[in-house]
Amino acid sequence: MFTPDTLQWLGCGTGALGSLLLALNTRHSGWGFVFFLISNGFWTAYGLAIHAPGLIVMQIIFTTTSLIGIYRWLLSSKKELVPAN
Questions:
Q1: Least C-beta-crowded within 10 Å: which of 20, 30, 35, 70?
Q2: % of the chain exceeding 90 in pLDDT
Q3: Spans of all domains in the chain
Q4: 35: closest CA among 16, 61, 48, 57?
């Protein structure tokens, strides 16, 4: 079992890694959404541990966007990629 402090830092680290992967805009960028999803789990657990309903609701919404990103970037056969400038 993780302490709330550990959950907070794991959520921070996996979220930062997810954003870095997306910012790099490479063929591996879609994996950023997987790290966001993991981060969502840590932040949801943290929100439950400290009784923060606003944080929990936000993470439920972010979990939905992470799942959409995973579907669009990693699972969909028809990817709509934004061209690099």
A1: 20
A2: 87
A3: 11-75
A4: 16
